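@channel anyone free to eyeball this complex?
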Amino acid sequence: VGVPSPDLRGREEILRVHAKIVKLGPEVDFKVIARRTPGFVGADLANLVNEAALLAARRNKPYVELPELEEAIERVIAGPERKNHMITEREKKIVAYHESGHALVAKLTPGTDPVHKVSIIPRGPALGYTLQLPTEDRFLTSRTELKSKLYVLLGGRAAEELVFKEMTTGACNDLEKSTGLAQKMVCEFGMSDKLGPMTFRKKEEEVFLGRDINRGTTFSNETGQMIDAEVKQLIMDGMAYVRKLLSDNRSKLDRLAEKLMEKEILDSDEVDSLIREGGPAVA
Amino acid sequence: VGVPSPDLRGREEILRVHAKIVKLGPEVDFKVIARRTPGFVGADLANLVNEAALLAARRNKPYVELPELEEAIERVIAGPERKNHMITEREKKIVAYHESGHALVAKLTPGTDPVHKVSIIPRGPALGYTLQLPTEDRFLTSRTELKSKLYVLLGGRAAEELVFKEMTTGACNDLEKSTGLAQKMVCEFGMSDKLGPMTFRKKEEEVFLGRDINRGTTFSNETGQMIDAEVKQLIMDGMAYVRKLLSDNRSKLDRLAEKLMEKEILDSDEVDSLIREGGPAVA
Amino acid sequence: VGVPSPDLRGREEILRVHAKIVKLGPEVDFKVIARRTPGFVGADLANLVNEAALLAARRNKPYVELPELEEAIERVIAGPERKNHMITEREKKIVAYHESGHALVAKLTPGTDPVHKVSIIPRGPALGYTLQLPTEDRFLTSRTELKSKLYVLLGGRAAEELVFKEMTTGACNDLEKSTGLAQKMVCEFGMSDKLGPMTFRKKEEEVFLGRDINRGTTFSNETGQMIDAEVKQLIMDGMAYVRKLLSDNRSKLDRLAEKLMEKEILDSDEVDSLIREGGPAVA
Amino acid sequence: VGVPSPDLRGREEILRVHAKIVKLGPEVDFKVIARRTPGFVGADLANLVNEAALLAARRNKPYVELPELEEAIERVIAGPERKNHMITEREKKIVAYHESGHALVAKLTPGTDPVHKVSIIPRGPALGYTLQLPTEDRFLTSRTELKSKLYVLLGGRAAEELVFKEMTTGACNDLEKSTGLAQKMVCEFGMSDKLGPMTFRKKEEEVFLGRDINRGTTFSNETGQMIDAEVKQLIMDGMAYVRKLLSDNRSKLDRLAEKLMEKEILDSDEVDSLIREGGPAVA
Amino acid sequence: VGVPSPDLRGREEILRVHAKIVKLGPEVDFKVIARRTPGFVGADLANLVNEAALLAARRNKPYVELPELEEAIERVIAGPERKNHMITEREKKIVAYHESGHALVAKLTPGTDPVHKVSIIPRGPALGYTLQLPTEDRFLTSRTELKSKLYVLLGGRAAEELVFKEMTTGACNDLEKSTGLAQKMVCEFGMSDKLGPMTFRKKEEEVFLGRDINRGTTFSNETGQMIDAEVKQLIMDGMAYVRKLLSDNRSKLDRLAEKLMEKEILDSDEVDSLIREGGPAVA
Amino acid sequence: VGVPSPDLRGREEILRVHAKIVKLGPEVDFKVIARRTPGFVGADLANLVNEAALLAARRNKPYVELPELEEAIERVIAGPERKNHMITEREKKIVAYHESGHALVAKLTPGTDPVHKVSIIPRGPALGYTLQLPTEDRFLTSRTELKSKLYVLLGGRAAEELVFKEMTTGACNDLEKSTGLAQKMVCEFGMSDKLGPMTFRKKEEEVFLGRDINRGTTFSNETGQMIDAEVKQLIMDGMAYVRKLLSDNRSKLDRLAEKLMEKEILDSDEVDSLIREGGPAVA
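replying in thread with the prediction:
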């Protein structure tokens, strides 16, 4: 399992080490940053401090302050913002509904990480993104939580289908992630009732120079069929759940997407108030 | 997903950078060139400027002007023209119908990129080509648009079959592209209703020195069968659509092919007026 | 089969050799340490002495004493303790039941190695662990004993399911081990009645520089199916046994888990007295 | 698709370049040679000039003349003649019928390249050969023409079977070529009605140093079965056609083979007149 | 087939060569040693002489005598004795029955090599061993003799099952050998009536630097199934034979195992007399 | 197909070249040697001359004479004689019948190469051998002739079975050859009526440094099944033919084997007269 990623205290210490060579504003509290970066490893945190320093320099600030650190968190997660990237109105609308789909499913499904921000300003290779940050470090994840993760991942494609009766290439990264997650649930976490508490090595492991091993499947084709069926079932059940959830909450989805097209970025409170307007959620 | 290809503004800037060492005519507007080159990456644009400069030198012009830049766009897309390439009259007729098939399907199918030019002067390894240029940068493509792309790709073979009751090797490059596109729709974009919003890694990824991984299929043979069936269905449905479309518009196809045999190159307006002559299109 | 791991006498001698350069407390008896380290090879023992020396230095002791050696045994088996690792109360409870599941199955199943210690202080990559040490060197293991090993491995997941009606990622390392053990029973030890006293090479062997052999399965898919079925049967039978055992002894499990949440570490005697409180075990 | 092979004009120019360092007879016309060498690439043409020069030197000629160039064409296609190669009378008869089979099918099937020469003097690794040269450059080949090519390839084996009620190893090179051609028709040219206008990558592509990719089949076993069946059908249909054609024209076949045993080489006119003697062909 | 192993005369000569640099006792007769080492190749014989010299030195003998050479034969076959290796009484009993099983099957089955010695003193990686030495060089082995070899290999596991109603990991090396032998009978020696006098390459051949060939199975899955079934049949028939033989001769088995636990080593005569006590054998 | 092996005239010339540095007896006629060495390539002939020279030197002859050259032919084909190799009487009898089986099938089956010599003196890795030399160079081989070759290869095993009601490992080299030959008939020579005049690449081709291609089967499992079935049919039909032939000619077989045990070597005339004694052959 290798080295586990650092916990809250560990991240704070690592930030402190990397920040030694950077001038910091008086109000900067590394505890806050550490709390917002669960899952970050040492290299990510070093990167974060570096990006913040560059941003402060670009903004002619005498020292790094909280806004630079927060922007830096997003840069590390999703890449730099591409503000002048021109997409058509039609594409903008699709992206807005896609991201609103992710955000709404996250908000309405218990056991998901809080939505911190939804944006349709392109960042890195993505046309939009929904930033979820866990409130605390997690070391165990339950089957229910993993299913919720699947739902959120599928929310973008489902929203597109619901609103435009059409699907686009925009979801292909989500689909790769959700397929991979469902496969892990079945093959690594032993979470399929049909296959039982067993592991099935499906992915090839890394090989080193001069050690070149041909690892085909290590199970029979029939076991492979059962794995495929269970993975598909997880995805299909998730898609059915998400389609119903978004359809039942269509007005919330519309409000979110419309406001997102208008303001381009929504923070957690804005998302909450837009959802609340439509009455209590039915999850 | 790697680095996304530059957008309109990005292409204009890149063109400007590469053009610094080239003398340009007064009327050259890089905005126009940038608009005609969506999908071009930095290296393509550098190549474009270079080819245009060579053409201007060959034509003894004091500076690069629009015609050189336009010819250079086609060279980058399809290779240099091979004017003195001698093909038989019979082959010329087949090529003319083949390209007219592509062009007519593109003109009559909504959601395809505009036809800029149809040519039966060999260029690069191709005996003819139909130049389609999108009007704007596209970042999302819908299933409908991808199906339309399939139709255009299949139009050449379908026209040959309709007119000559025969098929030739001339379509093999089109078929490779359309098979690959249909596979991507099913395996990467999650656009098959039967297989659902999932990804299936079918293609081998690149491996690096000393890391040599044997990646066979990562799914069972039965899943593979379903993928094969869905890919085939996309192609077969596309072929049925295209056959009917060309058969219903046979006179337009004949007019296009005849004029193409006569003039060898048709621009967008010529194609439009040839199609209009035959009455409104039935798509 | 390579070099067998050293026996009791061998380990004692190896410890003596490595300890020559370390100052030892008067009461240190290598016989005791050797008895607690069956299965350790030379490198493990060298590591043990080294870790003990470092601990003594950190504790400002003039020489290595028994507590350092005992802590060092656990470090070699499971990695260093991570005391300040903060996990949520919910996670702590799951871990406590998970480890109590392992420990209780081990206590109630004849033919398992004695439970030396149960801990929910994270150590190495694990959130908790149950330390079992055999009382003597073992060179032959019977099918019954291997099945008991399977039961203990499955006890953690089974306890989670029983108590929380939920499963987590916390068992994935156990599941990898139990799947691997069941496969060895079928494919290497000839312990499946259906497949008979035969061996089936399923795992790829290591290859050396420049000798790169593609070893796929060396049997037909049908034989592979039978192997998969027998391995699954072993796991499923084990899971059924463990579920019943824990369900029948639910109050013992609760007492163990509660005390573990309170004290974080339980030694063998504490575990025994907690189990005894609930009346004689029904195995 | 790489660089296309040079057309007529291209070949003439290449010949001229290579011939600069060779003394040529006054009557040598490169147009003629270029017309006889469609499909030759630059290296073939360089080889041709070189072989012709060597032959002229061996014949003590002051310069290269047409006979040397013509002999050189055959050398490039089939290797050097092996005049003193002794084969038995029985083998000679089999070879004569085998080559007559190729030649007669080529003569009686429309759409095949003209037969230039039939020989049973061993050349290169072959015991005999039938030289077909296209009359003009071809850039498109129709399904009908490819089927005709199959017929000609199968003519040798079919003639052996018809006459000797026996088959020999002499056809194994023909069979490799015809199997490969039928596979290309199905898998690359999309010419199977059952599999449709699709491509199927069956052949492994070349890999470079340090990039070692395991490319298995990229389709399911069922698709593979369908491909196998379609390829076999093409071969079996071709064999049925050829068997009937040769059987219906048995007397022409006998005349060709007998004359070939007598003269060892027949040119196009001799073949024609031998066929004509037997009345009009029934194709 | 490579170089055949040396015959009796060859071994004697090789021994003489290697023994030149060693001082030998007067009574040493290499003929005797050569007769006891059929199947030894040159390197084995060099090793034998070397081990004997080391033993003589350790025993402070002025020269190598017969006891050292005999001990050296066993060292070369099975590794050095590990006298102080402590195993439990229970394990000792299992090993004693396991080895008695091998020995008794060998004694009661015609066509097996004579049992030279049975030991439960661990040697090399093994906890016990039964030393069989052929009386003469063998160059042909019949199916009957190979089946007898299978029986002897299966005798250990069968004895464990009969006596303890249990199986252990102690037989896994025997099972690997018997599975491999049965596979050779079917795939290399053409000794399966169902598969016939054919060979089936199942094992991967060694590959050399830079030549890395992926050799999968070279036959269809159905043929693989038939091979698996025939191999299993050989093992299962052998196991049935051995179970009956040991069950019918249970008292002999008990006498052998008891005496072995008492004396730890039995020579051929002791084994014979222990078997004879129980009346004539029923094979 | 590479370079064909030299024909009669070619071999004579090659012998002459290599023999230039060797002193030859006056009666040596290279025409004779060339006639006895069809299929030998240049390296074989060089080897032949060299071996003959060494033999002459060992025999203290002033020059190489015919006996040395003849012995050298056998050495090149089968390796050096191993006269002092001791095999048991039983093995000798089996080998005698085995070789007589080969020889008798060869004598009684039309279309096989003449038997030149039968020997049970071990040579190279073989315990005996039957030397067949074709009377002339062959460039075409018919299906009938290949079947006859199969019969001869199977004759050894069949004779063992007939006489001893037993099979031994002695035939495993024959079986590898006959399986390979039957596979070539089906997969390379297109000689299976069921599979038709097609080729199937089954064997992996050599790969070069840095080009490492994974070539699995290039056909579906069902085609593989049909290939396996046809190959097996060829072997089984051959075995049935050979069993009947040897059974019908049992007395001839006995006479051959008995004389062979007595004299150890039989030449062609001796074999003929032994066969003739028993009346005319029934093939």
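from a first look: The beta strands of chain E are 115-119, 129-132, 265-267.
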